[in-house]
């Protein structure tokens, strides 16, 4: 039988426990929140296509002993930064001979004193396996919200641009040799595509959130002014920057919900481009007009028409997967497209049957209640006098894509409380 606890120990136990608790609570309260890494900019990777497709890649055959300097505008800022380079669609290892990050200047230059050498696992040179991304080691660089940074990659050996982003709406500079640390590059060529660069991350406060714009060319910003950050996700980033909420553009020009070609179909890339983003809280889905419009054009000569029920089934898959991960999903109505691309070789993109499908899809997006919220882009940009057409003031001129003014009107129309669900 055990001996009884002495009474003097019983008398001391409670005061000692209270004292220890009193010491522990202030220490716990004073512990700062652990920072976390959040993407502040993305460009969804695409596989390079061959010459049988109607559109050119706008890429060189290869890079060899060349530096590519690419500029990106971040959404939220931070004092520590890292970069993601992607070999997602490569069938051979990708060798990066050197990589630098800096604040962007004008015409391919960088801001003096801001250049930072990037390393990967402590090494300045990295070989990225086929199919893989690679994150750089963090560097200290004070990057303000909505500022522009330049990422310079040196490609020392023959390197086909197998992983790229077709519609960058941003000028990249290409020059001979390793110019990654040069303030002003001696450029031999420029590109309006992106190669290998897929994300920029900043160290942010724990719990920092992001919104992903998941779509096609209307999200990617086709026909927006080059080097002007005039896409609708850019304008949305300006609205949310003061709240420390990142906006990530996961648009791919030519993207479709159900089919591949200019990038994987939406169901295939939703995990990588949306759900895998750290801190993602909401996603806006604006995609489907290419599913409807491509058949019967040089873009998809042999494709059968896409009916509304098939598109709706695709949206339901995205909704289910977003909800399973606790991500709020907002549906966006498809914008008007009467007369789209009629002055181009893509004639036939629009017809009355396709318009009926768009109206059926939009009615479901608005009225089904299956998305967590809806943003009615169709109502914002359509011409009141001809609802199947875009309002002239918002039309870029091709009758499919808005111009800069139209893109800003789309961003301004988004209800931030509905988008985030907590305001």
CATH class of the largest domain: Alpha Beta
Strand percentage: 25-35%
User: Any low-confidence stretches, pLDDT <50, length ≥5?
Assistant: 1-25
What gap, in angstroms, lies between the N and C termini? 63 Å
In round numbers, the mean pLDDT is 93
Which radius of gyration do the C-alpha atoms yield? Answer: 25 Å
Our count of domains comes out at 2
Question: Can you tell me the CATH superfamily of the largest domain?
Answer: SGNH hydrolase
CATH fold description of the largest domain: Rossmann fold
| Largest sheet features | 6 strands, antiparallel
How many distinct helices?
Answer: 10
Task: Give the overall shape, derived from the CA principal axes.
Answer: globular
Which second-level CATH architecture of the largest domain applies? Answer: 3-Layer(aba) Sandwich
Question: Could you write a compact summary of the structure shown?
Answer:
This protein is α+β, with helices and mostly antiparallel strands.
Keywords:
2 domains, 10 helices, Rossmann fold, alpha+beta, globular, 423 residues, 6-stranded antiparallel sheet
């Amino acid at each position: 039988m055990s001996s009884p606890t002495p009474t003097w120990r019983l008398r001391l136990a409670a005061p000692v426990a209270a004292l220890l608790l009193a010491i522990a609570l202030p220490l716990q309260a004073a512990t700062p929140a652990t920072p976390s890494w959040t993407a502040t900019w993305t460009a969804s990777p695409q596989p390079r296509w061959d010459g049988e497709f109607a559109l050119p890649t706008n890429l060189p055959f290869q890079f060899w002993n060349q530096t590519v300097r690419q500029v990106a505008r971040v959404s939220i800022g931070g004092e520590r930064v890292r970069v993601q380079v992607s070999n997602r669609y490569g069938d051979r290892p990708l060798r990066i001979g050197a990589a630098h990050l800096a604040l962007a200047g004008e015409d391919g230059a960088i801001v003096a004193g801001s250049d930072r050498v990037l390393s990967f696992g402590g090494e300045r040179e990295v070989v990225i396996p086929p199919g893989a991304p690679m994150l750089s080691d963090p560097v200290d660089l004070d990057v303000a919200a909505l500022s522009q940074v330049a990422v310079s990659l040196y490609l020392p050996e023959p390197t086909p641009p197998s992983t790229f982003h077709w519609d960058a709406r941003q000028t990249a500079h290409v020059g001979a040799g390793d110019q990654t640390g040069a303030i002003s590059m001696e450029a031999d060529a420029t590109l309006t595509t992106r190669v290998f660069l897929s994300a920029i991350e900043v160290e942010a406060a724990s719990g920092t959130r992001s919104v992903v714009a998941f779509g096609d060319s209307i999200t990617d910003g086709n026909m927006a002014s080059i080097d002007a950050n005039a896409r609708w996700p850019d304008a949305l980033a300006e609205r949310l920057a003061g709240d420390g909420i990142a906006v990530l553009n996961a648009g791919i020009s030519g993207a479709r919900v159900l089919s591949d070609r200019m990038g994987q179909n939406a169901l295939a890339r939703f995990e990588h481009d949306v759900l895998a983003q750290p801190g993602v809280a909401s996603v806006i889905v604006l995609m489907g007009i290419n599913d409807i419009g491509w058949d019967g054009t040089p873009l998809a000569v042999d494709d059968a028409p896409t009916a509304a029920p098939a598109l709706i089934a695709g949206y339901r898959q995205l909704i289910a997967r977003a909800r399973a991960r606790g991500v709020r999903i907002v549906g966006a109505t498809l914008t008007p497209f009467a007369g789209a691309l009629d002055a181009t070789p893509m004639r036939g993109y629009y017809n009355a049957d396709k318009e009926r499908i768009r109206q059926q899809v939009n009615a479901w997006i608005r009225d089904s209640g299956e998305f967590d919220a809806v943003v009615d882009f169709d109502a914002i940009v359509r011409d009141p006098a001809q609802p199947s057409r875009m309002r002239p003031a918002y039309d870029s001129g091709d009758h499919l894509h808005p111009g800069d003014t139209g893109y800003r009107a789309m961003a301004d129309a988004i209800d931030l409380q509905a988008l985030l669900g907590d305001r």
